[in-house]
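Customer escalation, tier 2.

The customer says the design service returned an amino acid string that "doesn't look like it belongs to this structure." They asked us to rerun it and document both sides in this ticket. The original structure tokens are below, unchanged.
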């Protein structure tokens, strides 16, 4: 019992390693036959993206929906750091660096969206 307590993470890893393939390769028995049996099916559903550019656009939209509020909260936090610094040069430097990194992150986030749109429109214009 002491061996399992010492190496619990290894036991869980081994259980998942042997149990997960059985679950993922399980097949439904009985019931009506599926029309997708033996075919490659879009894992994102029938309404999901059907091409790589559509998938990238959907992925970037999701990242932007999560990232923009995080950037807004980070800017508010940087403002709090500036107020809390109260003239202390070390804390002001920390707040200034935090704001700089937040703005760089926001630029990368919005820049990735702009580059994706640019590439998508170029490919559509060529095709």
């Amino acid at each position: 019992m002491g061996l399992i307590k010492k190496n619990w993470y290894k036991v869980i890893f081994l259980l998942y390693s042997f149990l997960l393939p059985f679950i993922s390769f399980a097949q439904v028995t009985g019931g009506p036959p599926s029309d997708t049996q033996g075919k490659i099916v879009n894992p994102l559903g029938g309404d999901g993206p059907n091409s790589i550019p559509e998938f990238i656009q959907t992925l970037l939209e999701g990242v932007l929906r999560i990232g923009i509020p995080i950037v807004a909260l980070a800017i508010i936090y940087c403002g709090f750091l500036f107020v809390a610094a109260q003239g202390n040069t070390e804390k002001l430097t920390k707040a200034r660096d935090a704001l700089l990194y937040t703005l760089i992150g926001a630029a990368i986030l919005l820049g990735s969206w702009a580059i994706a749109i640019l590439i998508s429109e170029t490919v559509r214009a060529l095709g």
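Tier 2 assessment: The sequence is consistent with the input. The chain is about 75% helix and 0% strand. Helices lie at 2-6, 8-24, 52-85, 89-126. Sent an explanation to the customer and offered a walkthrough call.
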